[in-house]
Write a structure and sequence with these properties.
Layout: E1 2-3, E2 6-7, H1 13-18, E3 20-21, H2 35-45, E4 54-58, H3 63-76, E5 80-84, H4 98-105, E6 109-113, H5 121-134, E7 137-140, H6 146-150, H7 157-171, E8 176-180, E9 186-190, E10 198-200, E11 210-211, E12 216-219, E13 223-230, E14 233-234, H8 237-242, E15 250-255, E16 258-263, H9 267-276, E17 286-292, H10 304-307, E18 313-318, H11 323-328, E19 336-338, E20 343-345, E21 348-353, H12 357-371, H13 376-385, E22 389-390
Parallel strand pairs: 3-5, 4-5, 4-6, 6-7, 7-11
Antiparallel strand pairs: 1-2, 8-9, 8-22, 9-13, 10-12, 12-17, 13-15, 14-21, 15-16, 17-18, 18-21, 19-20
Length: 391
């Protein structure tokens, strides 16, 4: 294996039985700049122990990042298997390959570093069903790329976790959240004290898997009404297709939790988004209201995996976390039907609306003050008076 410019001997048969790539020789080079982010993922976010088995799932596009992660696992001495999806099945996947399912069943930790493809939602839900049932510490790194490895994955996730806990303590007392911006957003979310606020700060536990990089808190809102101007990014494969929406925002309107309108000068974006959120009778329903808390991020980059963690607001339609919500005391909103393959499942549609830059800077500054232990009233005042964010 080639690691950071150095040739390393191939593992012995006994080593291969304990760890290795499940589908090819262990000979993949990677950019040494990936090492810091990979080390953060393995040692800080997942806290992998030498006696824990790890399942690594990747694809051809992302294999170099996976190799950096595998290098950290090898340094630790943890047994692992790394699977390249294209070696197992044709993409887009119809189902998660059985080899991967079997490996997940016997793993304590899993890492999914893959580029999203259209119509693969079913296979990802099959994966998270195992993760939830087995309570695997799972790092979800969909659409991870070089920029995210060098930026978001280098964050101080212990700091992000402390901040996220403080923000959760604030919002749990709120009955309603309202966000307004000069761009036209005027969104109100009613909150219910019976529904928990959760944090996915990058510190992953068996109770809730999370995206990496981390840095958000979220809940299921009681009801959402109003207008949301999305000048950041939309999720899933639409993110790679349309990127940053600063020049061609998407404006959506919601009434009683339902998406009622979507408009953009980019008609292809408008049409694709509308189709994605109307795969069945309930996929247009708001299932998540979230606040980004990763203050180490400096700007929106057009990648939802990282951008939704930037201090700002994002919402999701459908049931983004599935069984996790039921285990965590958040109501399981709706049963949806994935009608493309005529099988039952949960439709997930994430959209991230990162609003105007001055609004984001105000919120980011406020979160920094909160982390430093300054008066929470000051933070609330900044959010209320300067940004149009009302608690």
């Amino acid at each position: 294996m080639t690691i950071q410019g150095q040739e390393v001997k191939s593992p012995t048969p006994s080593q291969t039985a304990r760890q290795g790539w499940g589908t090819r020789a262990n000979q993949i080079a990677f950019d040494p700049e990936f090492a810091e982010g990979a080390r953060n993922a393995v040692n800080v976010c997942l806290r992998v122990q030498p006696d824990e088995k790890v399942c690594v799932i990747t694809d051809e596009v992302t294999i170099e990042i996976a190799a950096a992660i595998v290098c950290e696992l090898e340094k630790l001495g943890a047994p692992y298997r790394a699977w390249v999806l294209e070696d197992l099945a044709e993409r887009p996947l119809k189902d998660l390959p059985p080899q991967v399912v079997d490996d997940l069943e016997s793993s304590q930790v899993s890492i999914f570093a893959v580029q999203a493809q259209r119509n693969e939602l079913r296979s990802r839900m099959q994966m998270t069903d195992v993760v939830n049932r087995k309570k695997i510490r799972h790092a979800h790194m969909v659409n991870i790329n070089r920029q995210i490895m060098l930026e978001g994955m280098r964050a101080d996730f212990q700091k992000v976790d402390r901040l996220s806990a403080k923000v959760v303590a604030m919002v749990r007392k709120a009955q309603r959240v309202r966000a307004t911006t000069e761009a036209g957003t005027d969104l109100t979310a009613d909150l219910n004290h019976n529904y928990k606020w959760l944090k996915t700060s990058g510190i992953i536990t068996p109770e809730k898997w999370g995206n990496l990089p981390g840095g958000e808190i979220f809940t299921t809102p009681g009801e959402v009404n109003g207008t949301f101007v999305i000048d950041g990014v939309v999720g899933d494969y639409l993110c790679a297709k349309f990127g940053n929406l600063r020049e061609t925002p998407l404006t959506i309107r919601m009434k009683q939790n339902r998406l009622t309108e979507a408009h953009s000068d980019n008609r292809e974006l408008e049409d694709d988004f509308w189709k994605y959120t109307h795969t069945d009778e309930n996929s247009d329903r708001v299932g998540e209201f979230a606040i980004g808390t990763n203050i180490d991020l400096k700007e929106v980059i057009g990648q939802i995996l990282q951008d939704e963690k930037y201090p700002g607001v994002h919402i999701a339609f459908g049931n983004p976390y599935g069984a996790l919500r039921a285990r965590s005391g958040i109501r399981r909103l709706i049963s949806m039907w994935w009608d493309v393959s005529s099988t039952s499942g949960w439709t997930r549609s994430r959209l991230c609306g990162m609003v105007s830059s001055w609004w984001k800077r105000s919120l980011r500054t406020s979160l920094q003050k909160l982390l430093a232990g300054r008066n929470q009233g000051t933070v609330k005042g900044v959010l209320r008076l300067r940004s149009g964010w009302h608690l």
